[in-house]
Amino acid sequence: MRSSVGDRIFNVANWLILGIVAILTIFPIYYVVVVSFTDPAEYIRKSFILFPEKWSLASYRYLLSTDAFARSLGVSAFLAVVGTICSLVVTASLAYALSRKRLRGRNVILLLILVTILFNPGMIPQYMLVRQLHLINSLWSLILPALASGWNVILMKNFFDSIPAELEESAAIDGSNDLSTFFRIILPLSLPSLAAFGLFYAVGYWNQFFNALIYLNDAAKWPIQVMLQNMLLNADNTELQADAFMAPPPAETLKMAAVVAATVPILCVYPFLQKHFAKGAMVGSVKG
Fold first, then answer.
1. Are the CB atoms for 150 and 117 separated by under 8 Å?
2. Phi, psi (5° rounding) for residue 181?
3. Would residue 26 be called left, alpha or beta, if left means φ above 0 and alpha means ψ between -120 and 50 degrees?
4. CB atoms within 10 A of CB 152
5. pTM over 0.90
6. Where exactly are the structural domains of the chain?
7. Candidates 2.102.10.10, 1.25.10.10, 1.10.150.130, 1.10.3720.10; correct CATH number of 65-220+268-280?
8. In Å, what is the CA distance from 160 to each residue of 3, 149, 165, 241, 255?
């Protein structure tokens, strides 16, 4: 069918508007990356740079040579790896147990989980709980309170409901107990959902910021997001002291390099989970 003049005008307007929105969205990211790789001497001469004449890794070398920034990267990596593993173990175990109809009190537990989704106790009760558990100034204060999400548990439970019960019956006939069935049969079949929820948990732990500000008093235990916020607010950050023989780059290039360095590691996780993530993103959200 031949499109009318009105349709062509509408399509052109759509492309124009979407193109402008795309440029406005991509430009800040582009500018951050470009400034982070700009030679410090060139940045001092120019107030605005779209494409540097000389590329440089000086800001990254200075940033990664500082003990505070490298330590904060290690803290965030610990939270992302250990926290994600713990969250997946708790979420998958609880969801699998709730998916078995023979579990006594199953409906009561599901109701309690639903209450946690609908009602948030707030910051003060959570802080009091963390303090009573003696987790203040401990990295576990960022992991244990966020160990499992009620919404994720329900979604994964719906996925486990779709697995035929005959698989468990066959495994039981062969002498497999519940733990062996769970780890050898159920979990291998659940890789798409584990990949999807694992990515959600990893991003959440990597981006820990507000809870870290509340629970961590020691700057040596700050994750990368808190360190980045401290850098952005304080251009002359005394926490970032590199080798005395290494001249510090301009504060702006250092900030941009910190933003890139704090973002790239979690972005690198996605390609390894992409195979399962596309299939598992909607796992358990619809139950037929």
1. yes
2. -65, -40
3. alpha
4. 22
5. no
6. 65-220+268-280
7. 1.10.3720.10
8. 48, 16, 10, 51, 45
Kindly list the distances between the CA atom of residue 222 and the CA atoms of 3, 142, 170, in Å, as whole numbers in the listed order: 58, 11, 49
- Average pLDDT value for residue range 237-246: 52
Could you report the per-residue pLDDT of 190-203, keeping only the tens digit for each? Answer: 888 888 888 889 98
CA angle at residue 206 from 129 to 241, to 5 degrees?
A: 100
Residue with tokens 């078995």, as numbered in its chain: 100
Q: Give pLDDT, residue 10.
A: 86
Closest CA to 226 of 207, 240, 239: 207
Q: Quick check: 59 and 40 in contact, CB under 8 A?
A: yes
Q: CA 222, CA 269: separation in Å to the nearest integer?
A: 22
pLDDT at 215: 92
Whole-angstrom distance, CA of residue 283 vs CA of residue 79: 25
Section 97-122 average pLDDT: 86
Angle at 164 between CA 161 and CA 168, to 5 degrees: 105
**DSSP for 218-250, written as a single string:** -GGG--HHHHHHHHHH-TT-TT----TTSPPPP
The model's pLDDT over 84-107, given as tens digits with 9 standing for 90+, comes to: 999 999 999 999 888 888 788 888
Could you tell me how many helices (H) and strands (E) the chain has, helices first?
15, 0
3 state DSSP class of 38: strand
Over 14-29, what HEC string results?
Answer: HHHHHHHHHHHHHHHH
Residue 199: which of 281, 94, 95, 86 has the closest Cα?
Answer: 281
Distance CA 82, CA 202 (A): 9
Collapsing DSSP to helix, strand or coil, 55 comes out as strand
Q: What percent of the chain has pLDDT over 90?
A: 18
